[in-house]
Design brief:
12 helices, 29% helix, TIM Barrel, Lyase, Ornithine Decarboxylase, Chain A, domain 1, 392 residues, 17 strands, 2 domains, alpha/beta, elongated, binds pyridoxal-5'-phosphate
């Protein structure tokens, strides 16, 4: 099954741009719902930072998901896309006062507080708004994840969350501060996790903490286990839909919870990565001394992941079935790190060929920049192409 239309169709829009396969997005959302429907206590928030394209957001909100936001801008985007305020959670180590105020005024569901000082600030701002803010403590569980070092978040050396050793102090602070009410705990150990044993470790740590809290007669109704489920970057078509069954079953099996509790998930990458491709055109082929460069019109300004953390994306030449050759596929940006992929085999590339950089729906468009004076990359949904265009 091939998710992408022909090169001629893709060439009807100015490259570079993102192409989003809405059918695949819907199949992915359905797969998530099928699994969560099996577990009465599970609720999923979509992590907007993976991709906040307004039309994608609308479709995700219409499917009934909540939203996980990390800035005031994301809260505004979530509300605009139709996510109900009472399904919005707000995380981040550095929330500004105006962002906290916005969240209070919009009556979002919960603040995920990441430091003792932030607790005091949320309390003070909630007092000014004459509110009692719902908060969950984001605990740094000191659980490693077998993923790239730049995308682990749950180790004590990472900046995220309240250290385990300060959890009790934070809980005491919550009972002292009158304008916040502690409803739960939040965790997030990292991203692009494909080894379910990492999530088992996370569950075990949460179980330990809950046992300890219960001994002190503290019972919290809200447990948020974060996101992080990985996708198959090597096989975007074969692995189009991540293994949500294995993921949710892991938590159902290993996390201890009561009938009074709800378990929340914050999925980003696994929802949108596979439905997006970065569409780019070959500008030049350059014979280097030792290698051949395929210079394309998309670079780190459109897709930062390869330059930022050596991420691997499958690249396809949609215009050619010629003999395979080895290329370094590079962008036009004036940085040596502006390399999409090194030493990849592609059907012989020529100026004007359309390349698709696959599995780019997550952390692609949302990380785009205007460096080198470039316009911000556009994103199109499959239904933005007319029927005539889709036939060519
Ligand atoms: C980024 C992030 C997520 C989403 O992570 P994915 O790996 O894209 O699923 C969820 N929760 C928090 C707190 C995050 O920072």
């Amino acid at each position: 099954m091939n998710a992408l239309p022909s090169a001629a169709c893709l060439n009807t829009k100015q490259t570079p741009y993102y192409y989003y396969d809405t059918q695949l997005l819907h199949r992915t959302l359905d797969a998530i719902k099928r699994e969560t429907d099996k577990h009465a206590h599970f609720e999923v928030h979509y992590a907007l930072k993976a991709n906040a394209h307004p039309q994608l957001l609308q479709q995700i909100s219409q499917a009934g998901f909540g939203a996980d936001c990390v800035s005031g801008g994301e809260i505004t985007a979530a509300l605009k896309a139709g996510f109900p305020a009472n399904k919005i959670v707000f995380a981040g180590v550095g929330k500004r006062d105006d962002e906290i105020r916005l969240a209070l005024q919009q009556h979002i569901f919960c603040f995920h507080v990441e430091s003792l000082e932030e607790l005091e600030v949320v309390n003070a701002l909630a007092a000014q708004e004459q509110q009692v803010a719902r908060v969950a403590l984001r605990i740094n569980p000191n659980v490693g994840a077998h993923t790239h070092a730049h995308i682990t978040t749950g180790l004590s050396e990472n900046k995220f969350g309240i250290p385990l050793t300060q959890m009790n102090t934070a809980i005491d602070a919550c009972s002292r501060l009158e304008h916040i009410t502690l409803i739960g705990l939040h965790f997030h150990i990292g991203s692009q996790i494909t080894d379910m044993s990492d999530f088992v470790s996370e569950c075990q740590r949460i179980n330990e903490l809950q046992t300890e809290l219960n001994q002190h007669d503290i019972h919290l109704r809200y447990i948020n286990v974060g996101g992080g489920l990985g996708v198959n970057y090597d096989d975007p078509d074969g692995g189009a839909i991540p293994d949500f069954q294995a993921y949710f079953d892991t938590f159902a099996q290993h996390l201890h919870y009561t009938k009074e509790q709800t378990i929340h998930f914050e999925l980003g990458r696994s929802v949108v990565a596979q439905c997006g491709s970065l569409i780019s055109k070959v500008l030049y082929i350059k014979e280097g001394e030792h290698k051949k460069f395929c210079i394309i019109d998309a670079g780190m300004t459109e897709l930062l992941r390869p330059a930022l953390y050596q991420a691997h994306h499958k690249i396809e030449n949609r215009s050619s079935q010629g003999a395979l050759e080895t290329y370094d596929v590079v962008g036009p940006i004036c940085e040596s790190s502006d390399v999409m992929a090194q030493g990849v085999l592609l059907p012989s590339c020529h100026r004007g060929d359309i390349l698709a950089i696959r599995s780019a729906g997550a952390y692609g468009e949302s990380m785009a920049s205007q460096y080198n004076g470039r316009p911000l990359v556009q994103g199109y949904l499959s239904n933005d192409f007319s029927l005539e265009e889709r036939k060519i």
